[in-house]
Amino acid sequence: MGAIITLSILALVVLYLGLFKAKALLLPVSILGFLVAIGFLLNDWTADKGPLFSGMVHFDHYAIAFSVLCIVVTLCIFIISKGYFDEGGQVAEYYSLLIFSLTGAVLVNSYHNFSMLFLGIEIMSVALYILVGIRKRDKASNEAALKYFLMGAFSTGFLLFGIALLYGATGSFDLDEIKAYVVNNPHAISPLFYGGILLLIVGLTFKVGAAPFHFWTPDVYDGAPILITSYMSTVVKVASFAGLLRLFSYSLLPLQDFWEPVFLIIAIITLFIGNISAVMQSSFKRMLAYSSISHAGYMLFAIIAVGASSANSIFAYGLAYSLATIVAFTGLILVKKTTGSEHFEAFNGLGKRNPMLAFAMTVAMLSLAGIPLTAGFIGKFMMFSSVMEDYHIVLLILAVINAAIAVYYYLKVVVAMYFRDSEESCVNVQWNYSFVLLLAVGLTILIGVYPDCLLKLI
């Protein structure tokens, strides 16, 4: 609980630092606050006290691992934000809103009561509605914010209606009470309960960007500032999947025969829509938006074949995907500063213009494609293994086909960097970008070569 309190206070402190024009302190204070929050979480690793505050939140190993991941990814985004947010002149507002959103993500990771799930999702989302459209003179940003807000509010209605139906059937918001209801009444479950599950699936799959509730993703990711897009495609997606898995692997597991076919259909649709759409993109940023949809399809495997290894599978995949995505968006920021373009052509000749950045981008693309010796391969291997153990052979075959499609559009970037010439000038990489690139690429390769550190973490 110390992490949530720390992040909440940190967001307010950062806001007041902006009010008093202490711009130079924003980044150091934010980084210090993140490290303190991580310290609280690591301290709780060996002191699991069970659900806290009348069962509202539970900081078990599961919640702590995903919360640390979310904070570390946000920390990396803050480090590369130095100089990026200055362009808009609203640096404190950017930082504060991102920290508030991160606080919501930690709540989603640790909820043990539906009221906390709803609060966490709304705190995480409302801040992003503002951040997506914070560039008031950018029409694309304004359009993206409006779409995200309207569709987000619509999906929240489904989520609330689903929670209300489950409450009507069980008389409780607590996950333990809901699980007890399912276990003790296997043949007398109210139709309201089944309806509530379906509505919850709609509301939660919207948050992770899974088809057919993905329509907001390409336009919002494309219109938002690049750093906000990187945050949404990593922290928000990982936290949403952590919340989704906690619900269906704990409280609703006895009803797996009911909801598993629904997730199976959603996963297949998501994979094909994400990958086929990504192939047709000429914008690198928009390609990453569609590819994030396909990655949501892979992460759904851990829920379809839910079991003891599902938490580790989603954590490993989320970590690998986050590391590679941070590198990809960092490279995009640097290339766009030089060329002013977000298209694949902007990367032409990058292998000669900046070999270090080109190498980092290559590792990121290979990891996203699931090529061996990268963390992305380990994540995909764990997802595919869970599906094989549950005998979803058709899903596995379709996933392999989609993985082959993904290799094509990820390698388009590599081809542009090393096999096409460009007259653009060299791409300069500041120390903060170099630090994040080195950290993310190093971890991607390290996990790909020595994956044992992830296999039994949670």
From TrEMBL:
Q: Which domain of life is it from?
A: Bacteria
Q: Does the keyword Membrane apply?
A: yes
Q: Can you say where in the cell this protein is located?
A: Cell membrane; Endomembrane system; Membrane
Q: What does this protein do?
A: NDH-1 shuttles electrons from NADH, via FMN and iron-sulfur (Fe-S) centers, to quinones in the respiratory chain. The immediate electron acceptor for the enzyme in this species is believed to be a menaquinone. Couples the redox reaction to proton translocation (for every two electrons transferred, four hydrogen ions are translocated across the cytoplasmic membrane), and thus conserves the redox energy in a proton gradient.
Tell me the gene name: nuoN
Which keywords appear in this protein's UniProt record, sorted alphabetically? Cell membrane, Membrane, NAD, Quinone, Translocase, Transmembrane, Transmembrane helix, Transport
Q: What is its EC number?
A: 7.1.1.-
Q: Which reaction does it catalyse?
A: a quinone + NADH + 5 H(+)(in) = a quinol + NAD(+) + 4 H(+)(out)
Protein name, as recorded: NADH-quinone oxidoreductase subunit N
Q: Where in this chain does the record put each NADH:quinone oxidoreductase/Mrp antiporter transmembrane domain?
A: 113-405
Q: What assembly does the database describe for this protein? A: NDH-1 is composed of 14 different subunits. Subunits NuoA, H, J, K, L, M, N constitute the membrane sector of the complex.
Where does the sequence pass through the membrane? 24-42, 62-80, 92-108, 114-134, 146-168, 188-206, 226-249, 261-280, 287-308, 314-335, 356-379, 391-411, 431-450
So what family is this one in? Belongs to the complex I subunit 2 family.
Membrane topology classification? Multi-pass membrane protein
